[in-house]
Design brief:
14 helices; single chain; mainly alpha; about 350 residues
Length: about 350
């Protein structure tokens, strides 16, 4: 009798322990795999809405200059033991003022970028990273206007190639200055990074210049440089800058290659960017998934015309394009800029497109 009671008690205790383990496991999975990524996505949506509000405020008011220089405490970056690539490993460059951009002090640029990076960076676990990568890919495919999801996909998949791109940028003097000064393609007066672009000055340039055509292209499409999403899920500030730079020069490349902003045009440019960025995952994923949203005629044009054009750029372009300090070429004729770097304009669209206003 006692043995039976002991056996029953043991089974009951084991069952209770199993239920407790299942409860703890379920709570952990819900918190780390489901709840946290969805909170991150909710945070992304909130940041996107805040950026629109900031844009409306900055365009309605004139920014006032600082009345005092930043102190050493304000500008000095905090120690970060997770950083693999630091600006101290980059050859220091003399202070440089590019045409039509705000003056950049290289000694301050790195500290300003680190401060901005820490304000937007969201550390996540490998499991959360995988969940966000898959979720953002699905949402971005279902709704091409969700640019924030495309940005999350780029953040969560790009680290290995970003290291290669960072290394390639250090191979040229111009690329080293970009990494040292960390210029941002933002409107003048926006204090979320080093530097800024004076779009009023660009509009005043001769119409055949690179800067004037860039400003006209942005105006004609209703785009604003400050609308680009900030990099949030790249765990190294130097690599995060490389990704941010890629996003901000995307529109400049549009102007240079003249790809339209239709779905076909964006997919064609993503093929071109995949070649120029050594296969950055966001470009490869977009170039492979994007064709599913094209008509049969557009898919045929992509295969017969645009993919060969993109692959030709591997041999015609003579420098890593992320290593180019594009702001310094704004006052030069755009044809001269194309010739300097071996950039070939995209072939004209041979078929009607299915969407002339795709989110790019």
């Amino acid at each position: 009798m006692l043995s039976r009671l002991s056996l029953a008690w043991t089974r009951t205790a084991a069952l209770q322990q199993t239920r407790a383990v299942r409860s703890v496991t379920r709570s952990f999975v819900t918190r780390t795999v489901v709840t946290s990524p969805f909170r991150a996505i909710k945070r992304i949506n909130s940041v996107s809405q805040q950026s629109l509000a900031v844009r409306a405020l900055t365009t309605a008011t004139t920014p006032t200059p600082l009345k005092h220089a930043p102190t050493a405490t304000e500008t000095a970056p905090k120690p970060d033991t997770t950083t693999t690539y630091t600006s101290t490993s980059i050859a220091a460059a003399a202070p440089h003022v590019a045409p039509h951009v705000t003056a950049i002090d290289p000694s301050q640029a790195s500290a300003e970028w680190i401060r901005f990076y820490r304000s937007v960076h969201r550390p996540i676990t490998p499991v959360q990273r995988a969940f966000l990568a898959v979720g953002s890919a699905v949402l971005g495919f279902l709704n091409t206007h969700r640019g924030d999801m495309i940005s999350v996909l780029g953040d969560t998949t790009g680290a290995p190639v970003l290291r290669q791109l960072h290394q390639s940028m250090t191979t040229t003097e111009e690329g080293r200055r970009v990494l040292s000064e960390k210029p941002r393609i933002l409107t003048t007066g926006i204090a979320s990074g080093a530097g800024g672009v004076d779009f009023a000055a660009l509009r005043a340039l001769p119409p055949n210049t690179f800067g004037a055509q860039y400003a006209a292209w942005m105006d004609s499409h209703g785009y604003h440089p400050n609308d680009r999403s900030s990099v949030q899920f790249v765990d190294d500030p130097e690599l995060a800058y490389v990704m941010q730079r890629y996003r901000e020069v995307h529109d400049l490349w549009h102007v240079l290659v003249q790809c339209p902003t239709s779905v076909l045009g964006e997919v064609a440019q993503k093929w071109w960017e995949a070649v120029q960025t050594s296969g950055l995952p966001i470009t490869v994923i977009s170039s492979l998934i994007g064709p599913f949203r094209l008509s049969l005629a557009e898919q045929s044009a992509l295969v017969s015309t645009y993919i060969p054009w993109a692959l030709r750029s591997r041999t015609t372009i003579n420098t890593p394009l992320l290593a180019v300090y594009w702001e310094e070429y704004f006052d030069q004729p755009i044809e001269q800029v194309r010739k300097r770097f071996g950039i070939e304009i995209a072939p004209p669209v041979p078929v009607p497109t299915t969407d002339a206003t795709a989110k790019h």
